[in-house]
């Protein structure tokens, strides 16, 4: 069930109405209702994979209890073994469904290069939606129990709800037990102001997804699907637009998740913070997919030693984290290159920090000036956008072909001429997209300055608030890309 589907438009109000219809003193009954709704939500993709969700949940639930008892009895070694076991089992499940055929494919390539005719058979398995997200969330819980950051919960149903909570189940944010788990022990009252805020956040997420991301996808898919028939300028334009497509697609999902949870009374962590306002690659990764970046920092980078064992070890740890991040995103070498490039950017940025500081001091560069921040922002965007090419391409070979085609057919004057004319949009659609981009830029600039845009809108007079509501709804209804016969489009990150 997709957030941008008619099914969700029916499902969500029913969940909310019945949740608040149950008296707050019957907290267990409320949680059971949310748990049933969450599993129903997930089973709409493939009912059988609910068993996989439950299996991963049960393993980490039992591991949490075991770790908690071992720690309380000062049996640290036993706690480590239990923690390691929960990681091995869950990562084995993830490997089987997500990476087994990737492993087989690469083994067959090696066998072919060695002149062997034998080929390993591919497995007939379908990647369960959201498996990377809920497994990482569950593993984070066991690690937090081991570290003493959270207590092992004895209530299985409450823990099941923590792992499967439908707003963030299939594409995050990847929540921490210290934030979300305890909220299921609280009574959430129906609050009109909070509901209005949640609905506005959902409306903004839907606007980002349907008006911006899905419309951009029409041109991006056409160019990347037939790149040999396009000029370098058109490929560059498509790659730049893809940066905004993936931001508005995934960011839109995150806002829909956060808004849905807020209507029910729950607070999810921020997942995007105006990422293209970043002035360095390091700054970008503080703003992009914050929940995953934080997960890798806390559960991989720090255990590897972080920055505590010298600069060389810090650089190696940084590269490992981004290499693994690339693998997390997909079973393809193009994702690995995408992650590795970002890791290399960060290492170079860190290694040259002192040199760049001395240069700026000699040139008396004022880092507070808009021109300086704009220049840094453009360079950062260009570096990040180049890596998105590997993320979007259907393999390393295609990515290299696209780069080659871009170079040999580069005609920059066309980027605002023929490139735009061949997008296939009417002038009215292009105008609507331009307005949408301006709105996105305004919201992101205000967010970057620390403003809570949603709260600011809701504090205004009724005429202004309804102008915003109706304006967004009008754009969604008139210029939303609903697909063939008005079928909703999936979110990009559902495949991870």
Query: What's the overall average pLDDT, rounded?
Result: 89
The tally of helices reads 20
Number of separate strands: 0
Helix percent band: 55-70%
Q: Which parts are unreliable, with pLDDT below 50 for 5 consecutive residues or more?
A: 483-487
Structural features, described:
It is a single chain. With 496 residues, the chain is mostly helical. Among the domains are: 18-189, no CATH class; 190-272 and 410-496, no CATH class. The chain has 20 helices and no strands. It has helices at residues 6-21, 27-43, 49-72, 76-113, 131-147, 156-164, 177-180, 192-225, 232-264, 281-287, 290-301, 311-329, 333-351, 353-362, 370-392, 396-408, 418-421, 427-448, 453-458, 462-479. Helix 1 (6-21) packs antiparallel against helix 2, helix 11 crosses helix 12 and helix 12 runs antiparallel to helix 13 (333-351). The longest helix has 38 residues, at 76-113. It is globular. 39% of the residues are buried.
Summarize the structure in short.
With 496 residues, the protein is an all-alpha fold. Helix content is 70%, strand content 0%.
What features would you highlight for this structure?
mainly alpha
Layout of strands and helices, then pairs:
Layout: H1 6-21, H2 27-43, H3 49-72, H4 76-113, H5 131-147, H6 156-164, H7 177-180, H8 192-225, H9 232-264, H10 281-287, H11 290-301, H12 311-329, H13 333-351, H14 353-362, H15 370-392, H16 396-408, H17 418-421, H18 427-448, H19 453-458, H20 462-479
Helix pairs in contact: 1-2, 2-6, 3-4, 3-5, 3-6, 4-5, 8-9, 8-18, 8-20, 9-15, 9-16, 11-12, 12-13, 13-15
């Amino acid at each position: 069930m997709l957030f941008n589907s008619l099914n969700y438009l029916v499902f969500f109000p029913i969940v909310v109405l019945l949740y608040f219809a149950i008296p707050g003193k019957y907290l267990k009954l409320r949680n059971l209702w949310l748990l049933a709704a969450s599993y129903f939500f997930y089973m709409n993709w493939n009912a059988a994979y609910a068993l996989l969700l439950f299996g991963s949940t049960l393993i980490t639930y039992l591991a949490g209890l075991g770790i908690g008892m071992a720690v309380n009895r000062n049996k640290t070694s036993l706690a480590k073994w239990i923690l390691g076991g929960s990681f091995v089992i869950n990562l084995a499940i993830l490997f089987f469904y997500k990476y087994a055929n990737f492993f087989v494919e690469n083994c067959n390539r090696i066998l072919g290069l060695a002149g062997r005719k034998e080929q390993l058979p591919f497995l007939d398995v379908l990647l369960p939606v959201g498996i990377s997200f809920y497994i990482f969330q569950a593993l984070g819980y066991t690690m937090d129990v081991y570290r003493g950051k959270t207590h092992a919960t004895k209530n299985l149903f409450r823990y099941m709800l923590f792992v499967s909570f439908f707003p963030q189940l299939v594409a995050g944010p990847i929540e921490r037990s210290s934030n979300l788990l305890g909220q299921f022990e609280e009574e959430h009252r129906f609050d009109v102001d909070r509901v209005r805020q949640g609905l506005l956040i959902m409306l903004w997420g839907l606007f980002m997804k349907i008006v911006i991301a899905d419309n951009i996808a029409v041109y991006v898919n056409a160019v990347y699907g037939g790149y040999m028939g396009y000029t370098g300028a058109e490929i560059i334009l498509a790659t730049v637009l893809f940066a905004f497509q993936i931001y508005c697609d995934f960011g839109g999902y995150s806002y829909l998740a956060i808004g849905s949870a807020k209507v029910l009374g729950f607070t999810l962590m921020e997942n995007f913070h105006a990422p293209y306002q970043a002035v360095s690659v390091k700054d970008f990764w503080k703003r992009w997919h914050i929940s995953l970046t934080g997960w890798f920092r806390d559960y991989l980078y720090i255990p590897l030693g972080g920055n505590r064992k010298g600069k060389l070890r810090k650089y190696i740890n940084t590269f490992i984290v981004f290499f693994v991040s690339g693998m997390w995103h997909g079973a393809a070498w193009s994702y690995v290159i995408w992650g590795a490039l970002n890791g290399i950017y960060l290492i170079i940025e860190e290694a040259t920090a002192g040199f760049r500081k001395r240069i700026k001091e000699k040139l008396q560069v004022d880092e507070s000036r808009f021109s300086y921040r704009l220049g840094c922002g453009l360079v950062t965007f260009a570096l990040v956008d180049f890596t998105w090419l590997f993320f979007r391409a259907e393999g390393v070979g295609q990515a290299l072909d696209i780069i080659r085609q871009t170079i040999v057919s580069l005609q920059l004057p066309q980027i605002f001429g023929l490139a735009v004319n061949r997008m296939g949009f009417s002038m009215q659609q292009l105008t609507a997209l331009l307005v949408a981009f301006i709105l996105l830029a305004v919201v992101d600039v205000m967010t970057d300055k620390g403003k809570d845009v949603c709260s600011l809108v809701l504090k205004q007079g009724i005429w202004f608030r309804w102008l915003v509501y109706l304006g967004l709804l009008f754009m969604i209804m008139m210029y939303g890309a609903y697909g063939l016969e008005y079928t909703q489009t999936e979110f990009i990150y559902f495949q991870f």
